[in-house]
Amino acid sequence: MKNSVINLTYQVLKGNTLDVGIKNYGVVYNLSKHYWDEVAVDYAKRESKAESLTKEDYDSCVLFFTLYNLSGWRKKERIIKECFKYLNSNGYIYIWDIDKPMGRLFFRKIKVLLPYNKEVEFTIKEINLFRKNPMNKIINIINKYFTIEEEAANDGIIYIKARKKGNLSDENNTCSTELTIHT
Question: Is residue 162 part of a domain?
Fold first, then answer.
């Protein structure tokens, strides 16, 4: 089994954050807590209709290993479109996920390095040979609603940071995530 390290020690999530995850690894909360005195992280579950969430209220939306769990591209696009609706005009979407072509297995132990020397470890086991989650298809969906500012891919793990389309503010475009693969 391969091991992957995602270094998020310098990742900054600005303002109110919406965590759209199927599993809660605690990563989004820890990133927000490190940089802000008052933490505002809301969790949207796939099963809920997110009726309690306010549209255009969030500064950041995070999909942390979420898309690969969804079967079908309509579901993946729907969740990205929902993120677009809940982000304010200067909002960002952050995506960490797997890049998996059809016919391949993905079995990986992932270690996430967080601020204050915290670490989170988990295993992703995607053994359905017919399920695919290629980065280029994810980017095609993202480009409909967002302007990609950062993207990185390394040995089956992807990172995308994109700004909601229609924004005029320009920010620093340096990559704040480091993907390292250890075999």
Answer: yes
Neighbouring CB atoms inside 10 A of 180's CB total 14
CA dist list (Å): 99 to 34, 41, 68, 164:
29, 27, 8, 23
In a domain, 26, yes or no: yes
55 lies in some domain? yes
- Render pLDDT for 57-114 as a digit per residue (tens, 0 to 9): 899 999 999 999 998 899 999 999 999 999 999 999 999 999 999 999 999 999 999 9
Q: Max Cα separation, the chain?
A: 46
In a domain, 116, yes or no: no
Interval 57-72: pLDDT, tens: 899 999 999 999 998 8
Edge-to-edge strand order for the sheet containing 118-126?
118-126, 106-114, 2-7, 178-182
Amino acid at 65: F
Q: Are 90 and 59 in contact (CB under 8 A)?
A: yes
How far, in Å, CA of 91 to CA of 111, rounded?
27
Q: How many domains does the chain have?
A: 1
